[in-house]
Amino acid sequence: MILIICGAPIAIWRRVRFSGAKHLKITRRMHCVVSVQFYAAFARRQKPFGTDIFSESAMTYTKINYGLDAPPICYGMFAIGFFGLIVAILSPLFVSDLLLLGVEAIACLMAAYGVGMGIYMVWSSRIGKLRTCETLMNEIGRIRPWKGDEIVLDVGCGRGLLLIGAAKRLTSGKAYGIDLWKGEDQADNSPEAPLENAKRAGVADRVEIKTGDARQIPFAPEAFDVVVSHWVIHNIEEENDRSIALQEIWRVLKPDGVLALADISFVKAYLDQIKGWNSKSISFYDGGNEAKLMGFLSGGTFRPQYLIVKK
Ligand SMILES: C[S@@+](CC[C@H](N)C(=O)[O-])C[C@H]1O[C@@H](n2cnc3c(N)ncnc32)[C@H](O)[C@@H]1O
């Protein structure tokens, strides 16, 4: 058990490359072997997070980096946590006995909050959002079964999570991604990153990238069968601009097309806006307990929810 727990992060950390689902080709130092084998066994036999992110290919999972979201906030959380930790450790040296208990309590709370939120953000970028991607793709398929010939748009594709998730379901279809490649919204954000990830996922022939703003989508009206967007629109500061982005998304979606729109805030506002249009169906997922807890801990700024809409 200990080997499995230790082996997985070590194997990922050392970026061991796998050549296929059955054969492990270890390109780094041989002393990774034990941890690699334990990780591979762990990845193949179990679905520890209740999704198929590992089962499709443990190899793909280790090879593709979909990027840390909101890196300045994530690092800020860790900084708050470590500051709290240092104050908790050092406060007996410079705080009077009268205040010590209060200072220690606040410092410990800061440490727990900062480190906890930081770890959650890393987990969510590395694992949580991969699960959400699979869920969204399945939800789209429930409303409009995937045929493989769809033309898909990922608005704010970043390093290509949903873009590639959709491309994996295509045969003759194509997945387009647009983005403004903002580094503060996603680490190592660039037009090359989703292309490289698409290559690693084996879907490069079904993917195209463009630089473009969600408020002015560079495509013709009714060009797409499916439009997806994950954690993008909240980055647009002005309410009016967010509304324009939604109108743009609606403009490029074909009648009977499906929109999957996931975000960490404002999702109810999106719902209200879309309700005013003539959609055939709308489902709102409130995010369950995770959204309630994270919404509470973040003061309402982080509440992951999504909409599935048929135009
Ligand atoms: C948190 S990242 C999410 C990326 C990707 N959808 C994912 O889930 O991994 C937010 C992305 O939105 C992009 N973005 C922010 N404002 C945008 C805008 N107005 N138009 C297009 N993309 C935008 C950022 O550059 C960044 O790539």
Instruction: Tell me the distance between the termini.
Output: 49 Å
* SSE run: HHHHHEHEHEEHEHEHE
Number of helices: 10
Bound molecules: S-adenosylmethionine
Count of the separate structural domains: 2
Mean pLDDT figure: 84
- Total strands: the figure is 7
Helix content: 40-55%
Q: What is the CATH architecture term of the largest domain?
A: 3-Layer(aba) Sandwich
SSE class: alpha/beta
CATH fold field value of the largest domain: Rossmann fold
Strand order of the largest sheet: 3-2-1-4-5-7-6
**Poorly predicted tracts of residues:** 1-62
Sheet-strand content, in percent, reads 5-15%
**CATH class category name of the largest domain:** Alpha Beta
Q: Can you tell me the overall shape?
A: elongated
CATH superfamily of the largest domain: Vaccinia Virus protein VP39
| Largest beta-sheet characterization | 7 strands, mixed
* Cα gyration radius (Å): 22 Å
Ordered list of secondary-structure elements with their pairings:
Layout (H helix, E strand, L loop, with lengths): L1 H12 L19 H13 L12 H6 L7 H24 L2 H47 L7 E5 L5 H7 L6 E6 L12 H10 L5 E5 L12 E7 L8 H14 E11 L3 H9 L5 E5 L2 H10 L7 E6 L1
Helix pairs in contact: 1-2, 4-5, 5-6
The chain binds S-adenosylmethionine.
Give a concise summary:
The protein is of the alpha/beta class and 311 residues long.
